Amino acid sequence: MTIIEVDAAAGRLRFGDIDIPCAIGKGGSCPASSKREGDGCTPLGVWPVRGVLLRPGRVSLDRFPSAPWRWTREGDGWSDDAADPSYNRPVQLPRGFSTETLQRDDQAYDVIVVLGHNDSPPQSGAGSAIFFHIWVEGRPTEGCVAIAREEMLRIAPMLKGDTAMRIF
C-alpha cells in the first residue's frame, strides 16, 4: 500500500520525498467517529483513494494516475444532504437535495481525489465529500485536505489503486 501522510496538527503532507504544507478543515481534525456533516472537521484515520476526478480544460497532466480516474462533466455533483438517499455519493445536478458542485468557479476541484471516508456504506450525517483537492489561497477547507495546485499536479500522476491517505 502506498501511503500519503497528513500531519493535521503541523499542517504537513508527506508522500515519498515530497514534504509540503497542506490545509485541513476549518474545524481542525477529529476522530472519525465524531465527524458530523457541516462541522468543518477533517476526520483522522486511513482513507483509501477511491478515484481521481479531473476537470477538462483546466488540468493537463503528462501522465495520468493508475488509480481509477475520469473527467468531470457539467452537472456532476456530490450529495452532502443527510436526508438524501444518495448521501455521500456522486449525483447529477440539479437535485432536490443539498449538493457540492464538482465543476466550481474556483480551482479547488480542478483535481479531486475521492477518499473512502464514510462510504461503505455511508452513514447519514457522518460526513460527506471528504476529498483531497487543490487549496484556494491556502484557506482551510470544509473538512478536506488541500494542497497547492502545482503540488497536486505533481502528486496526481503518482496515485495508484492501492494509495491511501493517513490523517493523524
Task: Give the SSE map.
Elements: E1 2-7, E2 12-15, E3 18-21, E4 29-31, E5 42-54, E6 69-71, E7 76-79, E8 90-92, E9 99-101, E10 111-115, E11 131-134, E12 145-147, H1 149-155, E13 163-167
Parallel strand pairs: 1-13, 4-5, 5-6, 11-12
Antiparallel strand pairs: 1-2, 2-3, 5-10, 5-13, 7-8, 7-9, 10-11
Keywords: Cell shape, Cell wall biogenesis/degradation, Peptidoglycan synthesis
Active site: 133 (proton donor/acceptor), 144 (nucleophile)
Domain L,D-TPase catalytic: 1-168
Written overview of the protein:
The protein has 168 residues and is mainly beta. It has one helix and 13 strands. The strands form two sheets. Strands 1, 2, 3, 4, 5, 6, 10, 11, 12 and 13 form a ten-stranded mixed β-sheet that branches. Strands 8-7-9 form a three-stranded antiparallel β-sheet, with no helix packed on it. It is globular, with a radius of gyration of 15 Å.
